[in-house]
Automatic annotation (TrEMBL):
CDD domains: SRPBCC_CalC_Aha1-like_7. Pfam families: AHSA1. Belongs to the AHA1 family. Gene3D superfamilies: 3.30.530.20. This is SRPBCC family protein. Residues 19-152 form the Activator of Hsp90 ATPase homologue 1/2-like C-terminal domain. It comes from the Bacteria. It comes from Paractinoplanes bogorensis.
Length: 154
């Protein structure tokens, strides 16, 4: 029998990127640009079941398959899009088909005084049944933000 639990937590990550807010925003809004950093851009995984509908009410989905066969699903709905300034979306994560978390993410893009973009992401999550936690999610998000940074300097 599965022990049911829910753990709530919030984290915020801030970065400075040496690119204009419109370019950083496009890395989220354009499917080809997002493919370069989101998921697992290092080539050790493959993705299936991808969809990308970037509009308020639109959905984005992907299942990432790791070398050991573990599958992580990402199912997002965009709720607020202010081009070049803000994104708000909800998403659920699954592992091998079991829901492990549900989150609300707010992404903010601001022109930095000296140029570039001051970027922040705040995530409020509920982690389910001990299958995920804020430490893992924060680490995964940090990994993705580093991958994003690389694409912005290429």
């Amino acid at each position: 029998m599965t022990t049911r639990s829910s753990q709530h937590d919030t984290f915020r990550l801030e970065r400075h990127y040496p690119a204009a807010p419109s370019r950083v925003f496009q890395a989220f809004a354009d499917p080809a640009a997002k493919d370069r950093w989101f998921g697992s851009p290092d080539g050790t995984t493959r993705q299936k079941g991808k969809s990308f509908d970037f509009r308020e009410g639109g959905r984005e989905t992907a299942v990432t398959v790791f070398a050991d066969g573990t599958e992580y699903g990402y199912f997002a709905t965009y709720t607020d899009i202010v081009p070049g300034e803000r994104l708000v979306y909800t998403y659920e994560m699954t592992m091998n088909g079991a829901r492990i978390s549900v989150s609300v993410a707010t992404v903010e893009f601001a022109a930095a005084p000296g140029g570039g973009t001051d970027f922040a992401i705040t995530e409020q999550g509920v982690y389910l049944d001990g299958l995920d936690d804020v430490t893992k999610r924060r680490g995964g998000t940090e990994y993705l933000l580093e991958a994003l940074a690389k694409t912005l300097t290429e």
